[in-house]
Amino acid sequence: MSAEIAHVVALVHAGKLREAARLLEQLPMSARVLVLRARVTKAPADALAARDLARLEGDAPALVAAAALLGELHLSAAEPRLALHALAEGLKVAEVTGEAADAYLLAVLALAQARVGSPSKAALTAEKALIRAALGSPARVLALRALGRHEEARRDAAEGGVGAEFFVAEA
What we know:
Layout: H1 3-13, H2 17-24, H3 31-41, H4 44-57, H5 60-76, H6 80-97, H7 103-115, H8 119-132, H9 138-146, H10 150-160
């Protein structure tokens, strides 16, 4: 990941979306840039375009990030089954690449599972996300929320500098 993209990621995590958007305009187009732009705009069309470009570029991390974002967008639109479908692609990428499933993807998956009426499965998935997530990361914050540990999630978000604006789907 380039230093510029890493800087934008930090801004997005902190909820500094306007500044992130300004910097994204200056970066050459790539799947990763488009995923970040989609997270900033929260526009489904941008997220779909990011997913499609990630597929074309063969950028597995960008594809997983796009799948997680699409899952969030579907959850925010009260479409948990569509969220599960979008998240399945991210899980498939992990399977094909031999990587462990992304912690953030798992946290979003836990929210979707809870919303379709599978609370025990959601809790197990959120616990997996929590184990894989770095302290203070958006993945950890969302996993804690999915587990109903809201006060701990607030503390973790504050310690990690994760802005509320980062999240599309709330637990």
